[in-house]
Amino acid sequence: MRKKTVRDVNLDGKKVLLRADFNVPMSDGEITDDNRIKMELPNIEYILAQNAKLIVCSHLGKVKTEEDKNGKSLEKVAKRLSELLHKEVKFINKTRGKELESAIIEMKPAEIIMFENTRFEKGETTNESELGEYWASLADIFVNDAFGTAHREHASNVGISKHLETVSGFLMEKEIKFLSQVEKSEKPLVAILGGAKVSDKIKVIENLIDKADKIIIGGGMMFTFLKSKGYEIGNSIVEDEKLELAKSIIQKAKKANVELILPVDVVVANEFKNDASIIKTVEVDKIPSDMMGLDIGEKTILEFRKAISDAKTIIWNGPMGVFEMPNFAKGTISMCQMIAALKQTTSIIGGGDSAAAALSTDYSDAFTHISTGGGASLEFLEGKKLPGIESISNL
Length: 395
Ligand code: ADP
Ligand code: MG
Description:
The protein has 14 helices and 17 strands. It is of the alpha/beta class and about 400 residues long. The protein starts with 14 loop residues before the first strand and ends in a 5-residue tail after the last helix.
């Protein structure tokens, strides 16, 4: 089932409400990374080129109290967008009311206005129906391009969609297209799973176990698997209450004829620090009791390379080690490098930290798709239906 996109509807002269994801990082009231604004430009330029009147909204940060509103205005975002577009972006520092409504009435085709942070409205995160209905009343058509919030049922995505024809923007379209390949992937499909905890990833594992031909396990979660098999794991991160679960996953994989591949060696350190005084690589059955595993080792990297070499599709969620510390980033970077070398393979990486890790390497361009949706990509990989996607009209 295909979802309608901005290309499937006539936008000429229409009032178009765009839900963008302009939740950019800010520090001292300044935008520290404008990538999210830049990524949205092609979609905005397309809409304006159709001669539409464009009304843009987004959330910014977490807003629970009145105080939280300090420093969370979208005004700086509107200014930055204006600079990038070389075009005036009129900012209305309200989320509703006369001023906003009059500004919209006065708009001419190909003009653009942005209103204030959607989370300044209490009813946004509770998806109060009156709020969604109100925002919908401002426009003729709704473009939802905020994949990052697709796992949430908020007024500014699902709420508006209840009252207005909804299509996806370019970014949402791309996310849906690539993440859907989990379901209809070319085989062999190799899933690479890492990250901190098994408990964060259990649903992803369960969803992929029926679909993947091989599952590679790295990251912090490998130690719960190793311990469940009886290995000494020292001070490595572990979830003792998940040992039985790890065992059952190993069993399930066996039954489903899925190859579950665990590391054979690990980089250990005596403390959780980049410049720990002792850092060395040991076999998985020789982890000293006073050390912790923080990355996969060289032999493991070679094993993993073999395992992915014939993959037609690779789905990756969760870094292989503590990649934020350069001394424990090698496993994750090597994985990126090895995947980049597989030119015929569809490679999709998702998850907040995983995407950040991939983007920080020289190999980010080689991935077929890096899903920047954080929680939304994770829930997609769990096989869940996301309300923000469900509410987009089908073609
Ligand atoms: P994502 O955000 O992509 O879903 P996670 O949040 O599950 O990924 O995992 C990322 C975190 O896992 C990183 O902060 C990383 O430092 C941590 N991590 C990876 N390997 C280890 C390890 N061996 N020990 C402790 N933490 C780890
Ligand atoms: Mg994370």
